[in-house]
Amino acid sequence: MANIRDLRIKIKSTKNMQQITRAMKMVATARFRRAQQQLEAARPYARKIAEVTLDLASLTPWSFNLLLRPHGHTKKVLVLVFTGDRGMAGGFHLKIADGAYQFSLKFQGQAEVSYYLLGLKGFQRFIARKIPVYKRFPAAVTGVSFSEVQKLAKEISDLYLNEECDQIYLYYSKFYSSVTQKPRAFQLLPIDPSKAHHKEEHGLFIFEPNQEAILDNILPRYIESEIYRAFLETEVGELGARMTAMSSATDNAGELIERYQLIMNRIRQSQITTEIAEIVGGSEALKA
After folding, report:
1. What is the pLDDT of residue 88?
2. Tally of domains within the chain
3. Which domain holds residue 214?
4. Model pTM?
């Protein structure tokens, strides 16, 4: 049975851990708000450029842009897996990494699947499960610059244009709230014009120089915006998961401290009761 000294040591160490988790929660909350604002600012642009790109692609069947043209076969599939670089985020990273692998199983026996890992935690998970990794993104996922996104977009586009990959997917966790992030697979290439939302009413549009040239110019920006959005969604989701995890850890530490204090109080009460009984017994013995 634990003694009072041991319980006091446990209470002190648990309080120290509680202070750490509370501080980490506060830091994650501050960073989460900034990252969420950045994501909310980027989402309208990503939605609109996707809408314009798909509409133009559906209205321009004669475009000879190779990013729109599916390969005649599907032998190689590349999956870009977006996770974070730091832990203390609950099961956020593992859920994405394991989900990406489960998603790739649908190509089993049909195509060779390669994994491009963005984020240290996903890379570590794949290595731990002994899953071959095609390449790892060298920079940090958090706070990635748009210039790095442009380099990655060009690299990915070149892989498709050179027919080194027949299909390219982004696998990341879409952010809904600090407690809800849902992993999703998004087909980046080839771009599917059938996903365009056609409107019933169409006006008369004049394209300058022409639809084909505009589409050829906007396609690289569409790819860049989708990749950048995946980075932002991952960053906000990671911070939200860490904020939730640290809040739960702080609450659990508080409950543990209360439990230790209750046990310590019971031991002290038992000791006091024993001492009183000994004093009363001694007094009765002296009277006798």
Report:
1. 86
2. 1
3. 22-196+204-245
4. 0.83
